[in-house]
Structure formats: structure tokens, C-alpha cells
Design goal:
Blueprint (H helix, E strand, L loop, with lengths): L7 H21 L8 H15 L3 E2 L5 E2 L3 H11 L1 H18 L4 H24 L13 H27 L3 H9 L3 H60 L10 H9 L6 E8 L2 H8 L1 H18 L5 E6 L2 E7 L3 H15 L13 E8 L6 H17 L5 E3 L7
Parallel strand pairs: 6-7
Antiparallel strand pairs: 1-2, 3-5, 3-6, 4-5
Helix pairs in contact: 1-4, 1-5, 1-6, 2-3, 2-4, 2-8, 3-4, 3-5, 3-8, 4-5, 5-6, 6-7, 6-8, 10-11, 11-12
Amino acid sequence: MTRHGSHVSYYIGIGLTVGAAAWGSIRYGAGIPWEMWNEILVFLALIVYFHSRSVNISKRMNFSIGASIIFPVIYLYGTGTAILLGAMAGIVDGVAGRKSWDRLIFNTAQLSLAALVGGVVYENLGGTFGTPVFPRDIWAMAVSGMAFILFNIGMVALVSALWYKSSWLSRLRAVGLGGLGSSMASGYIGVIFTMFAASYGLWGILLFGILLLELTELLQAGLTIKVERALRKELEEELVVDFKTQVYNFRYLNEWLADPKKEKVSALFLDIDDFKVFNDMYGHAEGDRVLTALAQTITKCVRSDDKVIRYGGEEFVVLLPCMGRLEAEKVAARIQQNLTKLPYAQWNQPITVSIGIAAYPEDAKDKHQLLLMADRAMYMAKSSGKNCYHLWTSEVSS
């Protein structure tokens, strides 16, 4: 499916947004106080700067303090000025972010329309344009600011839903709610900016603008560090995750063994019964499917804090923190019971595992011995006929 010539509802949604924004510009454009051009110009410069320096938080979200500038523009210069500067913000954001033409047009209309909504709500709540009265107008500012934020997020979610042909609520959760906290923080800053500008005029705007510039540098530095840490964590996790089964790999197990921390833990050592025969009969591709299915089955049978590890080949280790032998035995039984439900009727033999169980400090003096005892118990399960589990006992080692 090509991008252009499809998704008719998406382009209709953009068209309606642009039309509504254009109507608002005509309706309120005459009310722009051009005699305050010097102050408006400073706000315009701030909007251009902030929207050109947004920080990418994730693939779906970026952060900019530029929204804080729209709020004082609404309260000090009226809806028409806010619509104009909202359009400028959309253009700068689209160009700086190298967005496609349709997203640029939508962002421009969306921010203008959000400014229109914020201004209309403020006016209907009795807010005073030009010289807000404090604290009387604070309530009107708070409600109109929230209207601006919610409308803005809702419009992004709506157009996204039209493009992806999904429900509006699902897109709202995906693209909107994650940024609600930062948007409300921007609104709070915007109200303070309004109070400062109303009290000190052009010099107040300049001084608070400088403060925001410094604040932006600090926020961007903090967000950049946070994003880099998240990326580093993802890379580190990839190094200890088995690509084929998506559980932890032998490297993770080595790191766990090297950790001097001592805690109560049980270990399960699992081996797929007759896996070589299975591979020879059905091929390695089917064998890989079995490994993945087993990893998924084990994961569903344990707690979120338990660790499922592919030890190598067809062997797996499960670490069960703060769990004793009897509880671990129940986990082993649950795994074997769930394996009987695997939907692989095309195979002429069921997928079974032999499981060895050992616990620390009940059975072993350290982690290495714990793993060895669980391994020995697994071989005892093999010698007992396979497709069963065995608790380590002193008889195993004889």
C-alpha cells in the first residue's frame, strides 16, 4: 500500500483540521494587538528556538518546552495571536524534524486549533485578556490550559488512528498519555510565565525567556542522559538474551554465578528428552520451534522475577529466588503439565523434558554447587525413565 492515494479518511481528517484552523484564523485574526509587536516578536523567537530543539524521548514522542510559550500568548494577546504563533510553531517543528508534508500541514493546523480551543475556553470562563487578574484568573488559565493539552493530544491520536486504521483509544494510549505529564508541566510553566510577563512587561518576557533557555539546556541534558541510559540498558540486555528463544543466555548465567550476593534460591535444570532423535527426524528448523515453544512454556509457568536461561543446546536452567525445594517441585510439575498442551499434533511423539531440582542453602554451599546438584538430579530423572523431575539427594551423587 502506497502512502499517497490511500488512507482517504486520514487525509480528510487533515483537511478538516486545516479548515477549522483557517476558520479560527479568520474569526480571531482581527484581534491581534499589533501595537505590541515587540513583545509578540520575542515570543515568536522563543517559539522558533524551543520547537527547533526538541528532544526525542522515543520513536513516538519528543519533548519541547515550546508549549509553555503558547499559554502566555493566549492570556496576554488573545486567541488570534495564539493561533498565529501556534501555526509558526507547527511549521518550525515540521521543518526541524524533517517531517513529511502531510504531517507538517497537520501539525501546523493542529497547534493553531489547540490555541483556538484554549483561547475560547479561557474567554468563556471569564478570563481577562491582556492584563490577567491574579489569583482570580488562575482557575480559567488552568482549565483552558488543560483543554489545550487534551485537545492537542486527542487530535494527534485521532489522525494517527485514521492512518493506522485502528481505534482512537488504542492510539491515545500509544501516542498521547505518555506525554501527558510533560505537557502539564509545560502548562504550569506557561502560567508562571504569564504572571511574570504581566507584572514586568517586555523586560519580564526577556528575563523569563532567558531563564527558560537555561532550563531547557538542563532538561535536554537530563533527557539526553536518560535516553542514552535506556539505550545502553537495551544493548546490555541484548547481550545476555538468547536470540533464538528470547530468554537469558549462558553469559547471563555466568554473571549470576560471579555475583557474590547470597540469597535463598532454587534451580531447575531441564533437558529435552531425545532431542537429537527429534532433530534427525524432523530437521533443525522444527527443533528450533520446539526450543522456542519450551522457552515460552517455562516463562508462563514461573514468576516475573524468576530467570529462564538457555544453558546451551536443548538444556535450560530456571532460577527461582526465595523459593525452597517443595515450591520448586510444584513449578517443575507445572512445566511438565503445560508441555502436554503444546499444539504439535503433526509430530508423532510428545515433547517431554527431564528436570533436576536443587536448592540453596538446603542442598549446596554456593551457586556453582547448586547448579551442579541440579544437573546431577536431572541425569537421575533421565535414568528414571525421562519425562519426570527429580529432587537432588545425597543418593544422586553415589
